[in-house]
Every structure is written in structure tokens, then in C-alpha cells.
Amino acid sequence: xxxxxxxxxxxxxxxxxxxxxxxxxxxxxxxxxxxxxxxxxxxxxxxxxxxxxxxxxxxxxxxxxxxxxxxxxxxxxxxxxxxxxxxxxxxxxxxxxxx
Length: 99
What we know:
Blueprint lengths: L12 H9 L8 E4 L5 E12 L5 E13 L2 H6 L23
Antiparallel strand pairs: 1-2, 2-3
């Protein structure tokens, strides 16, 4: 799957259809939002509209928030750097007082 090309700031319906047509038609659609605290949302609606100049637009409206975006998705979106959990060390046991 391709990320949006920074040289063309907006994705067209045709480009979206092209990208979606390569995927499983039974896959659930989610919206990833907020790169600093990535959350997943259900897609609630697809709304046709127009901007101030009359140019056609399509809005994808988010629905319920479902939880966090999986870390690998946030990395692929370039919202987060790849990270590895620090190694776990064995904790020392506390000694009872008076010994």
C-alpha cells in the first residue's frame, strides 16, 4: 500500500479506488487519526460535498473510536519511529526489615 505522495497533497477518489481495489473486499475499514497519539476509528459515512469554489469533495467521516492504531501501522505511516522494548532485568527481592 502506498502512502500519499507529498508532491500531490490530496488523494483523489480514483486513486483511493485504485488502492482499495487491490485489497480484500471483506476487510473492515478503519481511519487512523492523530499521529502523536494514534487512535483507530470506524468509518461512519462517505459524504459527497463541494468546496468554496464548487470543486467536488468527498468526506470520509469517522465514527466510534476503537482504540490504538497498531504500532506497526503507526511506523508504516511514518508517525512513529520503530522501537524495541528494552530488555527486562530481574528485580531484586526486598528484604524484610530487621534482618
